[in-house]
Design a protein that fits this description.
The complex is a heterotrimer of chains A (44), B (244) and C (231).
Chain A (H helix, E strand, L loop, with lengths): L2 H36 L6
Chain B lengths: L22 H19 L1 H21 L3 H32 L3 H7 L4 H31 L7 H26 L5 H29 L5 H27 L2
Chain C lengths: L1 H25 L13 H28 L2 H33 L7 H22 L5 H29 L15 H50 L1
Helix pairs in contact in C: 1-6, 2-3, 2-5, 2-6, 3-4, 3-6, 4-5
The chains are: A mainly alpha (44), B mainly alpha (244), C mainly alpha (231).
Chain lengths: 44, 244, 231
């Protein structure tokens, strides 16, 4: 298999993978913030 | 018994008669305000001039063109210099409205938003054109230029090209007002949008300076660009002005 | 909601695997270029997705300008982000394919320049969203989307005109070159798979954005309540 072909397919999936990781981390952060808010304390 | 008849009272003579300014009057008043402010401080025009000059000098040293190369290059060079120098004027143009909450006052008033926008755009057009009139002789001298092609095309491309930069620049200047890094946001938004116009302007200018290449078709496209984007700006400015 | 999502994700995964097999094994070997041509099965569908989502972003922005619905704004943001991901892939796989086959990484023809410009406009849109403060972000972003869309048309026209004056080497066989039908099937499989995948990503991003909007509202309410309690 030509090297550039492998590279192209690999780069594609790496970029998609990074984006999915980004989304999951963002989702986790939002969930944490939501839990913080639900606790009866956070108005100043 | 009949109730007394109510007779209409004549309007007191001291009641003020309010006449609201027309669109044109508002536009002109905005325009002259900007021109007057700039004339008094001459901030932007000096900065612009110096910047454009620097760009020309740096490029000359970077590329060290021969006279023939220079003739091919200058079209692009002059528009790059004008584009970068215009950013200075465009950034300042709206910053001035934020002082003393002038912009907020304008938003609440009955004045038409497009009168403000066009007034600013025309003001910026005048500043950038003044810049071009000053640097054109400098470029002619530096690079030993002569217009080998049609002079009408040259004039048209400078008018249409300057308008293309200024109309979008004024619009994005307004959009950048309430963003962080306001001075960076304006060029960031303006440059991608201006690329088609830039390609056309540079080509016509190079065609006129080298005497080879068509000027009619790209000029037509450039004028269409101007018309389309002026319309889009006029349609959307009110939205941007009243955002938040 | 979650069950539908998981089901769709599994279907997408299946489609992607099938498409991968198609592109690497079942699709015919190309005579002139060789196996490097198989990049085509990832490059072209990604380009379709990038352009389609750009259009979707324009529609969502117009809807937002009309009725200011937060859902439209979330959809605009989601399509822009996913679109820029796919556009980046197009811009990377393209040169990787072009260099061994046509000897150059890049050329400033109408198609490539328009794609690069699309990427620049997407990125400036995302930067505007990140840098503008507070309530007016969706409006400004929607306005920029309109400008960007009008601009893409002009880019294509102006570069095409420019190229009639200054012809350049053509990458990718020029416009409208024929396609072997067996390759067409592999291409179709990948187009379907990548549209499913991108739709999944947009769905996820959309939900994330809506959650963030609701969380912001909750923050605002909590602050209000807090300040009332404090006074």
């Amino acid at each position: 298999m030509p090297r550039n072909l492998l590279l192209a397919y690999a780069v594609t999936w790496i970029i998609h993978g990074l984006y999915v990781v980004l989304l999951t981390r963002r989702a986790a952060r939002l969930r944490r913030e939501y839990e913080e808010l639900k606790k009866p304390g956070s108005g100043r | 018994m009949s109730s007394p008849e109510w007779k209409p009272i004549a309007k007191p003579s001291y009641a003020p008669v309010v006449v609201y300014p027309t669109f044109l009057q508002t536009l002109l008043s905005n325009l002259f305000k900007d021109l007057r402010l700039e004339w008094r401080s001459k901030d932007a025009i000096n900065a612009m001039l110096f910047f454009a000059l620097l760009v020309a000098v740096i490029f000359s040293f970077a590329f060290a063109p021969t006279p023939e190369e220079a003739r091919q290059m200058v079209g692009g060079l002059v528009w790059v210099a004008v584009l970068f120098a215009s950013i200075v004027a465009l950034n300042q143009s709206w910053a001035r409205e934020l002082r003393n909450q002038a912009l907020d006052a304008y938003r609440i008033s009955r004045a038409s938003p497009n009168a403000l926008f066009l007034g600013k755009a025309i003001g910026n057009f005048i500043f950038v054109s003044a810049l071009e009139l000053v640097i054109a002789p400098l470029f002619i001298v530096f690079f030993n230029l002569r217009a080998l092609g049609s002079t009408t095309a040259l004039i048209l491309v400078f008018v249409a090209g300057t308008w293309a930069i200024v109309i979008n620049g004024t619009f994005f200047g307004a959009m950048s007002l309430r963003t962080r890094s306001r001075e960076l946001m304006l060029p960031l938004l303006l440059f991608p949008i201006s690329i088609p116009a830039l390609v056309l302007m540079v080509n016509v200018t190079t065609a006129v300076l080298t005497g080879e290449g068509a000027t009619r078709r790209p000029l037509d496209l450039l004028i269409v660009y101007d018309i389309v984007f002026t319309t889009v700006c006029l349609l959307l400015f009110e939205t941007v002005l009243h955002a938040e | 909601m979650n069950k539908k999502l998981v089901f769709f994700a599994l279907v997408t995964l299946g489609l992607l695997l099938y498409a991968l097999i198609q592109s690497l094994y079942d699709a015919p070997h190309e005579e002139t270029m060789g196996d490097i041509q198989r990049i085509f099965y990832y490059h072209v569908p990604s380009a379709f997705v990038a352009f389609a989502f750009f259009f979707a972003n324009l529609l969502a922005s117009l809807v937002y300008l009309k009725n200011r619905s937060p859902a439209a704004d979330s959809f605009a943001l989601a399509t822009a982000e996913v679109g820029v991901v796919f556009c980046t892939i197009v811009l990377i796989t393209g040169p990787l394919w072009a260099k061994p086959v046509w000897g150059i990484w890049w050329t400033w023809d109408a198609r490539l320049t328009s794609t690069l410009l699309l990427w620049l406009i997407y990125v400036s849109y995302l930067i505007l969203r990140r840098f503008s403060s507070g309530g007016q972000t969706p409006v400004l972003a929607a306005v920029l989307s309109v400008f960007g869309s009008v601009d893409v048309v002009f880019v294509y026209m102006s570069i095409r005109w420019f190229r009639t004056q200054h012809p350049q080497p053509v990458i990718g066989g020029g416009e409208g070159s024929g396609l072997n039908p067996a390759m067409g099937y592999a291409l179709l499989a990948n187009v379907v798979a990548f549209f499913a995948f991108s739709a999944l990503l947009v769905w996820l991003r959309y939900r994330l954005e809506r959650s963030r909007q609701q969380l912001d509202e909750l923050h605002a309410l909590a602050a209000e309540r807090g300040s009332i309690n404090a006074s």
